[in-house]
Amino acid sequence: xxxxxxxxxxxxxxxxxxxxxxxxxxxxxxxxxxxxxxxxxxxxxxxxxxxxxxxxxxxxxxxxxxxxxxxxxxxxxxxxxxxxxxxxxxxxxxxxxxxxxxxxxxxxxxxxxxxxxxxxxxxxxxxxxxxxxxxxxxxxxxxxxxxxxxxxxxxxxxxxxxxxxxxxxxxxxxxxxxxxxxxxxxxxxxxxxxxxxxxxxxxxxxxxxxxxxxxxxxxxxxxxxxxxxxxxxxxxxxxxxxxxxxxxxxxxxxxxxxxxxxxxxxxxxxxxxxxxxxxxxxxxxxxxxxxxxxxxx
Length: 297
What we know:
Blueprint: E1 5-11, H1 15-26, E2 33-39, H2 45-52, E3 57-61, H3 68-75, E4 81-86, E5 89-91, H4 95-105, E6 109-118, E7 123-124, H5 127-132, E8 155-158, H6 159-164, H7 178-187, E9 191-202, H8 210-228, H9 231-244, H10 249-260, H11 262-268, H12 274-282, H13 284-289
Parallel strand pairs: 1-2, 1-4, 2-3, 6-9
Antiparallel strand pairs: 4-8, 5-9, 6-7, 6-8
């Protein structure tokens, strides 16, 4: 057993897939404490967890909290590290212990992100190459490539750092919510990195709403950009997004939602300090040429 790491899983309307994910998590040699936050499912998810996995701590939310469900799960824990997991992902045996060892050895490291294998083929997710070849410059002591952001469902976080920046934003709900947190972590002196020795498996669920994910992703990208980036970089990213997103109703709804948030974005805007902004600036070329980060549905 490794009592340094607990796992928080958020789920919504995916009972069958969650059951499979929990079977795999509970079979890990680390025997992690597991918290499931059910985001308002109506398909019997909560009852299935109670019946089949009494050792799992369940939070049955009456509403869909999105990524904020992770905040709820973390609040129940006292472990120094928290691994996030989606209901269609699972951690490779030994990865949680490896992550805890690295975080123990580097007290200013807040996030370690794993290699992602797409199942059932077991091939690397296209995003892995971008993580491996990250252009971000971090501290010299980092055990892997420095990152400007991270993928929550494939990362282990230092709980104290997560709480220091307030967890995931309620306003962003879900969809690219990690970028805002990553900027705030960097602003307060925390580091993020990719660790290829960690592995997460992902078998993408068919129970998803791709149009909503695209709409919210466009909205959240614009909100995060204008909340934290200086004027010129914010304009560049906005113009690039407007040039490259599909010209359809889904995009229009995302843009309208972003415009609706202008008053609170301006009110809460806090530009990143230069050392943190440099991380996002380093990613601009990769974001423009990426084949793994496109707003399509």
